Input
Amino acid sequence: MNPPLVLVVDDEKVNRLLVRRVLEELGYRVAEAVDGERALEEVRKETPDLVLLDLEMPGMDGYGVLK
Output
């Protein structure tokens, strides 16, 4: 069985890298997206168990993703 998948959505690369490092050390699989549009693409590929979503991003923000 695969470990849980966490999707990290943030326009700041440093934030994504930091969260990825912590989650992978805890045994999670991690997918990343830099904006809302890409987050929705990732969700369509494989449904994550958890989404860590930045609310303030250029383009489609986190609120748009939730809608």
User: Anything to note?
Assistant: Residues 13-25 form the longest helix (13 residues). The chain has a mean pLDDT of 96. The helical segments are 13-25, 36-45, 62-66.
